[in-house]
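Whiteboard transcription, Tuesday session. T.W. wrote the C-alpha coordinates on the left side:
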Protein backbone atom coordinates (compact mmCIF):
# COMPACT_ATOMS: atom_id res chain seq x y z
CA UNK A 1 0.00 0.00 0.00
CA UNK A 2 1.02 3.63 -0.55
CA UNK A 3 0.44 5.35 2.80
CA UNK A 4 0.91 8.90 4.08
CA UNK A 5 1.73 9.08 7.80
CA UNK A 6 1.33 12.45 9.50
CA UNK A 7 2.91 12.85 12.93
CA UNK A 8 1.66 15.89 14.84
CA UNK A 9 2.29 17.63 18.14
CA UNK A 10 0.41 15.37 20.52
CA UNK A 11 2.22 13.33 23.14
CA UNK A 12 2.70 9.70 22.16
CA UNK A 13 5.32 9.60 19.42
CA UNK A 14 5.83 5.95 20.37
CA UNK A 15 2.51 5.16 18.67
CA UNK A 16 3.83 6.56 15.40
CA UNK A 17 7.13 4.72 15.85
CA UNK A 18 5.52 1.33 16.35
CA UNK A 19 3.13 1.91 13.45
CA UNK A 20 5.87 2.98 11.04
CA UNK A 21 8.01 0.03 12.09
CA UNK A 22 5.18 -2.42 11.39
CA UNK A 23 4.49 -0.84 7.99
CA UNK A 24 8.19 -0.88 7.09
CA UNK A 25 8.57 -4.51 8.10
CA UNK A 26 5.71 -5.46 5.80
CA UNK A 27 7.13 -3.52 2.88
CA UNK A 28 4.45 -0.86 2.53
CA UNK A 29 5.43 2.38 0.78
CA UNK A 30 5.09 4.90 3.59
CA UNK A 31 5.90 8.61 3.50
CA UNK A 32 6.15 10.36 6.87
CA UNK A 33 5.53 14.02 7.56
CA UNK A 34 6.39 15.54 10.95
CA UNK A 35 4.73 18.82 11.87
CA UNK A 36 6.83 21.49 13.58
CA UNK A 37 5.08 20.76 16.88
CA UNK A 38 5.77 17.05 16.41
CA UNK A 39 9.50 17.78 16.31
CA UNK A 40 9.25 19.47 19.70
CA UNK A 41 7.40 16.46 21.08
CA UNK A 42 9.99 14.05 19.66
CA UNK A 43 12.74 15.97 21.41
CA UNK A 44 10.86 16.16 24.71
CA UNK A 45 10.04 12.44 24.65
CA UNK A 46 13.50 11.32 23.53
CA UNK A 47 16.92 11.03 25.10
CA UNK A 48 18.71 13.58 22.93
CA UNK A 49 20.38 16.75 24.11
CA UNK A 50 19.08 18.74 21.14
CA UNK A 51 16.43 21.41 21.69
CA UNK A 52 13.82 22.61 19.21
CA UNK A 53 15.60 25.91 18.52
CA UNK A 54 18.97 24.39 17.69
CA UNK A 55 20.23 24.35 14.09
CA UNK A 56 19.47 20.97 12.57
CA UNK A 57 16.97 20.13 15.32
CA UNK A 58 14.46 18.67 12.85
CA UNK A 59 16.93 16.22 11.32
CA UNK A 60 18.37 15.35 14.73
CA UNK A 61 14.91 14.63 16.15
CA UNK A 62 13.91 12.41 13.23
CA UNK A 63 17.21 10.53 13.31
CA UNK A 64 16.80 9.91 17.04
CA UNK A 65 13.24 8.76 16.43
CA UNK A 66 14.36 6.42 13.64
CA UNK A 67 17.09 4.86 15.79
CA UNK A 68 14.80 4.41 18.78
CA UNK A 69 12.21 2.57 16.72
CA UNK A 70 14.69 0.80 14.44
CA UNK A 71 13.38 2.40 11.27
CA UNK A 72 16.07 1.73 8.74
CA UNK A 73 14.51 3.58 5.81
CA UNK A 74 12.61 6.41 7.53
CA UNK A 75 14.95 9.24 6.55
CA UNK A 76 14.63 8.27 2.88
CA UNK A 77 10.84 8.66 2.98
CA UNK A 78 10.16 11.95 4.77
CA UNK A 79 8.43 15.01 3.39
CA UNK A 80 8.10 18.47 4.96
CA UNK A 81 4.90 20.02 6.34
CA UNK A 82 5.40 23.12 4.21
CA UNK A 83 5.79 21.18 0.97
CA UNK A 84 2.31 21.91 -0.37
CA UNK A 85 3.30 20.75 -3.85
CA UNK A 86 3.98 17.23 -2.62
CA UNK A 87 2.35 14.45 -4.67
CA UNK A 88 0.12 13.49 -1.74
CA UNK A 89 -1.42 16.99 -1.85
CA UNK A 90 -3.22 16.14 -5.09
CA UNK A 91 -6.25 13.93 -5.48
CA UNK A 92 -4.84 12.68 -8.79
CA UNK A 93 -2.03 10.99 -6.86
CA UNK A 94 -3.41 7.56 -6.01
CA UNK A 95 -2.58 7.24 -2.32
CA UNK A 96 -4.16 4.21 -0.66
CA UNK A 97 -4.57 5.71 2.81
CA UNK A 98 -3.49 8.44 5.21
CA UNK A 99 -2.95 8.07 8.94
CA UNK A 100 -2.34 10.90 11.40
CA UNK A 101 -0.75 9.38 14.48
CA UNK A 102 -0.72 10.86 17.00
CA UNK A 103 -3.26 13.51 16.04
CA UNK A 104 -3.30 16.72 18.06
CA UNK A 105 -6.55 18.49 18.83
CA UNK A 106 -5.36 21.45 16.77
CA UNK A 107 -4.83 19.22 13.74
CA UNK A 108 -8.19 17.57 14.34
CA UNK A 109 -9.91 20.97 14.46
CA UNK A 110 -8.26 22.17 11.24
CA UNK A 111 -9.29 19.06 9.34
CA UNK A 112 -12.84 19.15 10.72
CA UNK A 113 -13.25 22.77 9.59
CA UNK A 114 -11.53 22.36 6.23
CA UNK A 115 -8.63 24.64 7.15
CA UNK A 116 -5.35 23.80 5.39
CA UNK A 117 -2.28 25.20 7.12
CA UNK A 118 0.24 22.51 6.24
CA UNK A 119 0.69 19.38 4.14
CA UNK A 120 -0.82 17.11 6.80
CA UNK A 121 -4.05 19.10 6.78
CA UNK A 122 -4.11 19.13 2.98
CA UNK A 123 -3.57 15.39 2.64
CA UNK A 124 -6.38 14.73 5.12
CA UNK A 125 -8.65 17.03 3.14
CA UNK A 126 -7.75 15.22 -0.09
CA UNK A 127 -8.48 11.81 1.39
CA UNK A 128 -11.91 12.95 2.54
CA UNK A 129 -12.86 14.55 -0.77
CA UNK A 130 -11.63 11.51 -2.70
CA UNK A 131 -13.41 9.10 -0.30
CA UNK A 132 -10.19 7.30 0.51
CA UNK A 133 -9.24 5.90 3.94
CA UNK A 134 -8.27 8.55 6.49
CA UNK A 135 -7.51 7.45 10.02
CA UNK A 136 -6.92 9.77 12.96
CA UNK A 137 -5.34 8.65 16.24
CA UNK A 138 -6.14 11.42 18.75
CA UNK A 139 -4.23 11.51 22.04
CA UNK A 140 -5.74 13.89 24.56
CA UNK A 141 -7.54 13.70 27.88
CA UNK A 142 -9.94 14.87 29.12
CA UNK A 143 -11.92 15.65 25.98
CA UNK A 144 -13.94 18.84 25.73
CA UNK A 145 -17.20 19.21 23.84
CA UNK A 146 -15.20 20.92 21.09
CA UNK A 147 -12.92 17.89 20.74
CA UNK A 148 -15.83 15.46 20.72
CA UNK A 149 -17.78 17.55 18.21
CA UNK A 150 -14.82 17.68 15.85
CA UNK A 151 -14.36 13.91 16.07
CA UNK A 152 -18.03 13.36 15.32
CA UNK A 153 -17.90 15.72 12.34
CA UNK A 154 -14.88 13.91 10.92
CA UNK A 155 -16.39 10.49 11.47
CA UNK A 156 -19.52 11.63 9.64
CA UNK A 157 -17.29 12.90 6.83
CA UNK A 158 -15.75 9.44 6.47
CA UNK A 159 -12.68 9.47 8.70
CA UNK A 160 -11.89 6.65 11.08
CA UNK A 161 -11.23 7.67 14.68
CA UNK A 162 -9.03 5.36 16.75
CA UNK A 163 -8.12 7.06 20.04
CA UNK A 164 -4.81 6.00 21.56
CA UNK A 165 -6.50 3.77 24.14
CA UNK A 166 -4.54 0.54 24.59
CA UNK A 167 -6.33 -2.47 26.07
CA UNK A 168 -5.02 -4.86 28.70
CA UNK A 169 -6.75 -8.17 27.94
CA UNK A 170 -3.68 -9.29 25.97
CA UNK A 171 -1.61 -8.92 29.16
CA UNK A 172 0.98 -6.39 27.97
CA UNK A 173 4.35 -6.50 29.70
CA UNK A 174 6.02 -3.40 28.25
CA UNK A 175 5.14 0.09 27.07
CA UNK A 176 5.90 -1.16 23.57
CA UNK A 177 3.21 -3.83 23.97
CA UNK A 178 0.68 -1.11 24.77
CA UNK A 179 1.75 0.97 21.76
CA UNK A 180 1.63 -2.10 19.53
CA UNK A 181 -2.01 -2.61 20.44
CA UNK A 182 -2.88 0.85 19.10
CA UNK A 183 -0.69 0.36 16.02
CA UNK A 184 -2.41 -2.96 15.44
CA UNK A 185 -5.83 -1.34 15.58
CA UNK A 186 -4.67 1.08 12.87
CA UNK A 187 -3.52 -1.82 10.71
CA UNK A 188 -6.86 -3.56 11.28
CA UNK A 189 -8.65 -0.48 9.98
CA UNK A 190 -6.44 -0.50 6.88
CA UNK A 191 -7.03 -4.21 6.28
CA UNK A 192 -3.38 -5.12 6.92
CA UNK A 193 -2.74 -8.43 8.66
CA UNK A 194 -0.40 -8.39 11.66
CA UNK A 195 0.58 -10.10 14.88
CA UNK A 196 1.16 -7.04 17.05
CA UNK A 197 -1.15 -8.25 19.82
CA UNK A 198 -3.02 -11.39 20.84
CA UNK A 199 -6.68 -11.14 19.88
CA UNK A 200 -9.54 -11.72 22.30
CA UNK A 201 -10.96 -15.21 21.85
CA UNK A 202 -13.54 -15.26 24.64
CA UNK A 203 -13.42 -17.13 27.94
CA UNK A 204 -11.53 -20.41 28.10
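and on the right, the sequence the group agreed on:
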Amino acid sequence: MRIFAGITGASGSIYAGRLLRALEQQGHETTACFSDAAIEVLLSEGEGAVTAGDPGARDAAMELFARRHRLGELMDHVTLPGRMGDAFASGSFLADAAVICPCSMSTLACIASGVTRNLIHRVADVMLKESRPLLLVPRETPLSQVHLRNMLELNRAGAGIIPAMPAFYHQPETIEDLADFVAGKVLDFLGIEHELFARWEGPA
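Someone added at the bottom: The radius of gyration is 16 Å.
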